[in-house]
Amino acid sequence: MKIIRISYPTNSSTDYPATSLAIGYFDGVHRGHQVVIQNAIKQAKTLGILSSVMTFDPHPKSVLGSREHTSFITPLPDKLQIFEKMGVDLVYVVSFNRDFSQVSPIDFVERLLVSLQIKYITVGFDFSFGFRGLGKAHDLKLLAKSRFQVQVITSVNSQVEKISSTNIRNALQMGNIEKANYYLGRRYSIQGLFHSEHNHFFVTPPSIMPALGEYLVEVKIHDQWVYGTLYINHEDKKLPFSLYLIDPPTSLPECLEIQFICLASNDVSQLGENPVVKKSI
């Protein structure tokens, strides 16, 4: 998979390949996002062109001053790995800054999308673009002017609500790992540095950490997965995360990937006293 970082306006002298494109921030790359991206891949195969994804870095809301978007379900490196596993050929990472936030919906199409030689675009039903998100999915169809096709994917829902990044974020913050994992279509995972002497785990990317509690997890160590327990205590400002493993190998990498299985306990007073995993490192 090729990654191209671009800024607005694009370089007019660059020869971009024809692609079928999925557009979105795609935080979490959840089940709804996957349908959008899979459709872009499907159309690329039909047309005999490359499949591509356009995402933005950093998050538009963080640039515009929202304090709610300083941590993410999938930081950019994780998101790119998921795109690659899905079979995406090319990813455009668009630099989002205040100047770009002022671009009109018309210029977003004429000076960005058209210059990239896009032949087919897939977006979600709630897609918006341009200054203050004034451009909507139906506007994209009108602005295409037969230069590219546009397909809008309808909402993907659970039995009770829309599957969305917001609802996954809320589930994680409530410790509802099973719900978050179902909406994601995979286990929620984080990466971080591990200091085995005191079992301390330090989250490195700006990942969302679940609610306070004791979690059953699986940890990737070299090429194997090992069960363990991760204790999260946001009230401990110095060392909020502690990790314990079952039968850990003799050597451990400094950086670990942790996948969440379920919440074992959210009783603050009992954290660490009766761990699911009794053998520490």
Automatic annotation (TrEMBL):
Pfam families: FAD_syn. One of its GO terms (biological process) is FAD biosynthetic process. It is an enzyme of class 2 (transferase). The keyword Nucleotide-binding applies. The keyword Nucleotidyltransferase applies. Residues 18-167 form the FAD synthetase domain. It catalyses: FMN + ATP + H(+) = FAD + diphosphate. One of its GO terms (molecular function) is riboflavin kinase activity. SUPFAM superfamilies: Nucleotidylyl transferase. Keywords: ATP-binding, FAD, Flavoprotein, FMN, Nucleotide-binding, Nucleotidyltransferase, Transferase. Its EC number is 2.7.7.2. Pathway: Cofactor biosynthesis; FAD biosynthesis; FAD from FMN: step 1/1. Belongs to the RibF family. This is FAD synthase. The lineage of its organism: Bacteria, Bacillati, Bacillota, Bacilli, Bacillales.
